[in-house]
Amino acid sequence: MLLSPEERSLVLVVSFFFAVYLFNMLGFRASLSELDYASRFIILLPVFFYLRKANVRAEYFFLGIALGAIACGLFGFYQIFYLELPRAKGITNAVPFGDISIVLGLMCFSGVLLATLSRSFRFLMLVGFLMGLAGSILSGTRGGWIAIPVVLLVIIAMNPMKWSRVTISASTILLFFSLGAVYYFTNVQVRFEIALNQFNAYFSEGIVGTSVGLRLEVWRASILAISENPFFGIGEGNFHSAMLMLINEGRVDALIAEKVAHVHNEFLSATLHRGLIGLVSLMLVFIVPLRVFLNLTGKGSGLNQLLPISGVVLIISYMIFSLTDIVFGHQNTTLLYAACIFIIYGMIYSKR
Question: Do residues 139 and 76 make contact, with C-beta atoms less than 8 angstroms apart?
């Protein structure tokens, strides 16, 4: 079966993304290990080719999403209330755990609003949404929380239940009241207030030695390094040497060499390490499948109608996560994105 133009665009985009990593590694003579994360897009590509040939039911995919979100919530409660950890961190660290919890929960929420699903399945998706939300709150991942109101509004705007304008308006108001309640009655408010105070302290007093201050300083340092190496970047594995050079020149604070391991922004990271072509390859990995999924929303029936909606939720969430973290610099978040994109594509074009 020949690939459709949309399928060919996916294969080309992920191949280009990997090729940019590969040529950057060869050009800067970096370690082969620098290909580790990007290689997941190529290694998992056979999943797409298999699923477009096999008639796999979408129920299995969404059952896995719901159970994954529930597991995140349960693990978060276990780590906070039994192990008494300050933040739920899964099996790695709090930030990717929180991001994964959020995206799985939000993908569940898109199923809650789909009227063509059975009540029992929609109830399971509702539980998945609430548990994913709980896992993210317990992780204290502030950067990921921004995705929650944005994606929920996107889901309502896509209108999977074909609501009237009055119902959409009422749902939007109820949504913000609910998010406001979560904000005031959990640790979310405290975490945001701390972030705001640290943000103000960085710009008003020049205080770098805080969580937010360090990120702002490393973003500033990255922009300085990018301005000097705009086309090809500094190469993979050269982050610390580039930061040390700026520190020795007295242009940035020395704390970032001691406290910061990476850029904490996927867009800046791609540009810093692989230049403008790296940024282009990253944007294509987001925008090309997002455009395809948006064009397919409202088509199909039952759970097949939910596939492109969940794809939109996944990509928008990851683009927001990328503002404060390197989502393709963690094994688990890279695998989740690549696997879900290929599964959703494979299932959509198998049905079509």
Answer: yes
Return left, alpha or beta for 95; rule: phi > 0 is left, psi -120 to 50 is alpha, else beta.
alpha
In the predicted model, what is the mean pLDDT of residues 13-37?
Answer: 86
pLDDT in tens, 264-290: 899 999 999 999 999 999 999 999 999
How would residue 30 be classed by pLDDT, with cut points 50, 70 and 90? confident
Residue 25 has pLDDT above 90, yes or no: no
Amino acid at 49: F
- In the chain the first and final C-alpha atoms are separated, in Å, by 12
Helices (H), 78-163: 94-112, 119-139, 142-145, 147-158
Measure the CA–CA gap between 273 and 21, rounded to whole angstroms. Answer: 9
DSSP string covering 230-252: TTT-S-TT-HHHHHHHHHHTTSS
Report whether 326 contacts 31 (CB < 8 A): no
User: Comparing C-alpha atoms, which of 24, 61, 16 is closest to residue 42?
Assistant: 16
pTM of the model: 0.92
Q: What is the Cα–Cα distance from 102 to 317, expressed in whole angstroms?
A: 8
CB within 8 A of 54, min separation 6: which ones? 350
Q: Per-residue DSSP letters for 259-285?
A: H-SS-S-HHHHHHHHHHHHHHHHHHHH
The answer to whether the beta carbons of residues 256 and 244 sit under 8 Å apart is: no
Question: What tokens were used for 321?
Answer: 């996560």
As given in the structure block, the two tokens for residue 127 are 């539980």
